[in-house]
Design brief:
alpha/beta; 3 domains; about 300 residues; flat; 9 strands; 3-stranded mixed β-sheet; Ubiquitin-like (UB roll); single chain
Length: about 300
């Protein structure tokens, strides 16, 4: 049965392309390049917080949980601290409640429900400080039963696919670890040219044994090869640093490495930085990198 887990896909490399890639390639490529937050990346528009938010800014100073809670106090304090430190501005209450929900789900309480109320502590024309009271209905605490896959054709080695998820069968279920696995899965296919790859995790439960089972429904899409590579706003010699050439399968990891060198912090999927023109019929993609918004 489908569940809210599918929603976390939008919020993490390569395995074996059956009969075409040696096994060591899978071991070498299962690497997630960390995001680099660097001021040298200059997107088309980067509005300040003041421009993004209008009116009074709301901050949460205190967080109190209630309910019949089994989660250790230390874990509750960790969740509360993240809310106090990282939630502010518009939609702060909704963001805080989602952070509470995620905090419990990352600790096995997948069916947790939360509701909240606030009390004003201090207020002036620019700032509103509140205390947040959250009622938590934990539900059962689940461990992971198994992860299986269907409709995977390009990468038929299910053991390689399973190894992309940083959680073992029998471990306490974690929404965050599943999300990371789904992101690594997406990048694995992205290294093989499957640019439009998507996956949906369908969940089923054994409440008696407190187990969650995931079946990852894979939609590989079409495999794309690079037809041409151009750059504007920089010397063409810059492309010598890109280990990807026309005729090769599109490889998102090589493009991430290229952008990390020249535009640290840039999003590989930012259409302002990397423009992709697809030829669906022939399975090709023409790439143009646009550095015009950035200083030399």
């Amino acid at each position: 049965m489908r569940s809210g887990l599918a929603q976390i896909v939008v919020f993490a490399t390569a395995g074996l392309l059956a009969g075409q890639l040696p096994i060591h390639a899978q071991q070498a490529d299962v690497t997630v390049i960390p995001e680099v937050q660097d001021q040298s990346y200059c997107p088309r528009s980067s509005p300040s917080r003041a421009a993004q938010s209008s009116g009074t800014e709301l901050s949460i100073d205190n967080v109190t949980f209630s309910g019949f809670l089994q989660l250790p106090i230390s874990d509750q304090d960790e969740i509360a601290t993240s809310i106090r430190q990282e939630t502010h501005g518009d939609a702060v209450i909704e963001e805080a409640l989602e952070r509470v929900r995620a905090g419990w789900q990352n600790r096995g309480y997948f069916k947790v429900t939360v509701s909240g109320d606030t009390r004003t502590l201090t207020e002036n024309a620019a700032d509103l400080h509140v205390a947040l009271f959250v009622h938590v209905d934990e539900g059962l605490r689940y461990t992971l039963g198994a992860i299986t896959f269907k409709h995977n054709k390009a990468i038929s080695n299910v053991e390689a696919l399973r190894a992309l998820f940083p959680i073992n069968d029998g471990e306490i279920f974690s929404r965050e670890k599943i999300a990371k696995g789904l992101e690594v899965l997406r990048k694995a296919y992205g290294q093989l040219g499957y640019i439009n790859f998507t996956s949906v995790p369908n969940t089923s439960f054994d409440d008696q044994k407190k187990l969650i089972f995931l079946e990852i429904d894979v939609d590989e899409g079409k495999q794309f090869y690079v037809s041409s590579i151009d750059i504007v706003g920089a010397d063409a010699e810059v492309l010598n640093d890109l280990a990807l050439r026309p005729g090769q399968a599109y490889d998102v990891r090589l493009i991430e490495l290229f952008l990390r060198k020249h535009l640290p912090g840039a999003d590989v999927n930012d259409p302002n930085i990397q423009r992709r023109q697809f030829d669906e019929r022939n399975g090709t993609v023409a790439l143009t990198f646009d550095f015009r918004s950035c200083p030399d």
